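Below is how a single chain appears once it has passed through the pipeline. First comes the sequence as given, then the structure the pipeline wrote out for it. We keep one example in the README because the format questions we get most often are answered faster by looking than by reading.
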Amino acid sequence: MHPERIEVIPYSGYRDNERPASFFVRREKIEVVEILDRWIEEGLEDRARKRFFRLKGSDGNIHRIYYDEKALGWFSS
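Resulting structure:
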């Protein structure tokens, strides 16, 4: 499955796009009910960082989304 660019309404604390508060998948707004896990991955060659979130959405599903710091965008994987 290829990553899909998504729109995220973030909670911004001390830095922009700190964590997702809600997001849209195919025009459906999904509220973040609970963040189950979070981690950072960094590319070996380009050092590009991605901040991943595994979360429970208001639709009852578990989602895995991430913020790509190089692309400056959110994606669903």
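The radius of gyration is 12 Å.

See the next section for the split statistics.
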